[in-house]
Amino acid sequence: MNKTSNYKLTLVIPIYNEEDNMAALEKVLCDYLPNALVPTCVLFVNDGSRDNSLKCMEDICKKHEAMYYISLEKNGGLSAAMKAGIDSAYSPYVGYMDADMQTTPEDLNLLLKDIEDYELVMGIRANRKDTFFKKIQSRIANGFRRMMTNDGVQDTGCPLKIMHTEYAKRIPFFTGMHRFLPALILLQNGKVKQVPVRHFPRTAGVSKYHLWNRLVSPFMDCFAYRWMKKRYINYKVAESNI
Predict the structure, then answer these.
(1) What's residue 180's pLDDT?
(2) How far apart are CA 33 and CA 60, in angstroms?
(3) pTM tops 0.90
(4) CA 42, CA 29: separation in Å to the nearest integer?
(5) What is the CATH number of the domain that holds 118?
């Protein structure tokens, strides 16, 4: 039996070359799990890290009962890591958080308060601690995405999100689709709520984002989403004797 089915929420954390953050990440997760509003486990997804991240998560999972990991054969990017985590989760809810320590798992409790009434509850980074250049790029990309998708979401790049697993598993993932989770939930007639969360400066490790994957690539992905939206199949089974 998949061990995540013993919990109400599986928190997926993609890891790519984050060995410098792993000790601090372990600490904040250990502090949070006993105080989570619902029984929660952690699922690390090693996305082909070239540093010591895999060994770090193996050691962490040996020490803590509610922490698990999967390791991808090679680096596939954030969307691939998220899909792998979602596919491996069998709890009613699945969450997402980055390993860069710029958000805190404590704020997941703010999202959990509304998860029964919404298929996706996501954070909005309040008082972002990024550089001015990063903020401008993000503002432009978010504005263009809202115009193209009409999802009404202020900050799709915020890494704190919780979804109903049955909806998350139906999301058609391909490279770049992690930016369109709210729009893809809305395509399923799901409801989305945004909640302000805290944001912190990165203190260890190196950002994996640059001009191409923060600004240029999202523009291109918007057109891919528009193409897919016209062809998206959304159905619900009304009756069965399977």
Answers:
(1) 80
(2) 14
(3) no
(4) 8
(5) 3.90.550.10
